[in-house]
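Narrative summary of target 7.
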Amino acid sequence: MFLVGMDDELLYRLWGKTNERGPRPEDFMWAYHPAICHMMDVGYVAEEWLRLSPWIMNRFLQLAPGIDGEMLRRIIVTIVALHDLGKVHRSFQSKSEEGWKTGYGRAGYERKGDGGQGFDHGLSTARIIAQLAMNKSPEWMPYIAAINAVAAHHGTLYLVSQVCGGAELTGYDERMARAMIEAITMLFDMPKQAPDAVDVLQHVPFLMLLAGFASVADWFGSQSEVYSFHPVSNFSDAQNYLAMLRGSGRAERQLCEAGLLSQFDHQQHDFASLFSFEHPHPLQRRAEQVPFGDAPGSEMVVVEAPMGMGKTEIALYLAARAIGSGHAGGIYFALPTQASSNALFERVEKFAGKIVMEGGEISLALAHGGRRFYEPYRQLLEQFERSRERIGAYRDVLAAPSEVIAPAWMQSSKRTLLAAVGVGTIDQAMLGAIAVKHAFVRLFALAGKVVIFDEIHAYDAYMNELIFHLLRWLNVLGAKVILLSATLPRTLRTRLLETFGTVSSGNAGAPEDDPYPQILHLHKGLLDAPYVPLYDAGDSNPITDDKPPVVIEPVETVMEERTMRGAELALDLVERGGCIAWIRNTVREAQEAARVIGALVNAGRGKSAQVVLLHARFIRHDRNLIERSLVSILGRNGGINRPCRMIVIATQVIEQSVDIDFDAMISDLAPVDLLLQRLGRMWRHERPREVRWGHAEPVLHVLLPAAEERTDLLFGASSYVYDAETLARSAAIVLDRPEREGRITWSMPGACRALVSRLYDQGEEYWTSSVLGADAERLAGIRRRRSAEQTDLTGKARRIRMPEPDARELSMAMSLRDDDREGNVALATRHGGAGATVILLRRTNNGLQLLGDPGRPITSIPEPHEIGRILAIEHGVMLSSVSFPWYEQQLAVMKREELLGDLERWWCERHPYDNKIFLLIESDGSFTHPQFTGYYSFDEKTRTGEGLVVVKTGRRVEEVVPYDEL
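Modeled conformation, tokenized:
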């Protein structure tokens, strides 16, 4: 029996979508899609998705034990369909004048004068259900929390006080609301009797998964090109409409086209089939014995091994095993930087092609802000678009060849993690732990996947706090996690394992005695004994084999003389020939070193050695040229192109992702684990010693402060980059000369464990002022400041986190701005690093020229329909951008006329949260801004230059205007 009003024609005239948005042709005629039809669209998508993706339903079942699967499915689908119940409210209906006339106006109601401005129909959905449950419909009481979760589909989870507190919701027709609820529950066959275990539907992990699932279902159900406007007049029409949807296959085609129905090959692979290895490393063979992925649910693996043992392949192999067993629904590989993500992308793409079902597809996404400008990924995107143009919008043809695809739908940063296979920055995963809009979509995307964190040791207290929170969520949502590191301290490893739910970390004995390399496996709170490599006859063992140890040569010098001392040392080393690296800790110091060495070479030192500078303050276009040039001559295949004499001066950008090999190295003092990372660029490739120009063994020269400076804990500009006590500890380790041996040597990679453990696992009771050779009072002051800073950082991270998995309610007290703006993403996931970004361009006779895109001068602002020109300018802007530290007031746009002013205004309108400044440089490379001056230098032919040099003027000029006033 129908509730009063369910058969009322008014219910079916209330609009949910209209064609009012977007350009209107001359023959425009207003049309609408009824709210009940849109709710059926979304419920239908949810219904089909659960049917087609069993891993999602399995996740829900594991989070809602005790409820029959079919009953749970019907409950989920009905609640998802009710996500837009708030649209029956008269304030929402007032948003469309024509919609009001069709609905409530026709029934005699008076339209609100403000046109429903600012009305939140999601919150209204939650409040309507809560009021009805507390008054006339108590059967809905167990579902209030679930309705709140789906009502948050626009990105923000509501507080219980917003939903259940305050004044009673007014302005809605209760009869229409009850009629809509009754119609939807009947259409999707909601169980009339709540299950006995209904309380589990109020648990926060279940609600988090539901919120993400409902949001994505709503995105698909809102595609008007698929769900065209369809008027209905009564309940029978609604039933017929839903029957038509169920027989149409629309949702399956949508989900397939978007890449959400990837088809994995569920067979068990080995290293040979996945990576074409003839002889896997013993640690890789040992990985085959780890029972990772053999059972459903969350588990963790930690792989600790030096470079060259194939940690990446171990992680991908274990992920393939979990997928092949049907216990994982995809992979996300999280890396520290965009550069390291790009470096891994093509390897992951090749791997994905090995695990796709014959005739099927696997979606692949590159997840970071610069993905559209990474050429191999752009090619994959274009390939996907061409294939869809060839076969039509939906794949209604016979099975295609097995392929890896990059669907256009997944290019929004909120959606990239939904790809079956993803590689990108750790920031994209961390956003699931932060109270940004649609964070729950990211957590939903990672639930049930294998999430791989590379270089897990490489983050500060702020990021670690968010990573720990993310791990807690991944654990309860059933994700499988793999952590990779070459230099992981035991203290951090223990914290990571305990965060994920281990009963005991299994630590015993001294940290430096822990096995290395090793694989740890954690499942259901229990930690297996370490898996260590077993060497067969004929295997090379990099830990014990007779390889040349790295000789450590400390070079002590006072701060004022450090650059000159390093320059003379570099020239002395290059005199005999070979390729030398000098890694500095700041860009300014690297630029200074390049100037000094350049002057000395011009004066006749170094036998005309080539000098190359590489740091992060080149525009992307020029940095790419430098990196590619270095890889071509110093990489694995450099061969005859390798220079006779070269000095490369670089910053930390060279520590990762750049596959180059030096004969000798100089480094500013850095934390020991980073010195080890830098060592990975020396004697990296197998080369006969005779071609290393007399450099008979790998030698690392470490520039250290003089003893007096170390006593006062003075480390110059390095103190802005690294903690002073960590530098002091590292100096003590570097200077730790064995009593009987005349020189310091590190046997690599076997020494990694002991060196890192000594640096980080030994506490303050070991690292006393006498051991450090430091002033006790200064050391105590540094420790107090560091403790306060870390407390502040962890506090700031905790204030922006999503709720804990065991919280009493799922809500967001705030919702940080995301809006797919990558700059805001970085602000949320990383702390500090205050800086400014400029876009460099110059005037030419043909118009404005972006420095990184010289082939395309800009003569006018593109029109909205000129998509190709818009993308080309955005690409050029990315290639022409460079950032630098800026700790004062925000940089402002100068008041300028003509094309440059128009370009700035156009950019700000398209990118309102992207605080880039257009900076015009003169023919000599110089520039002037009201707040700073400087120059930019780079010679494309020789691949040399200083990059961006900024000099603060301290002046404030009136003719600047903030972004929000443009």
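The longest helix spans residues 776-799.
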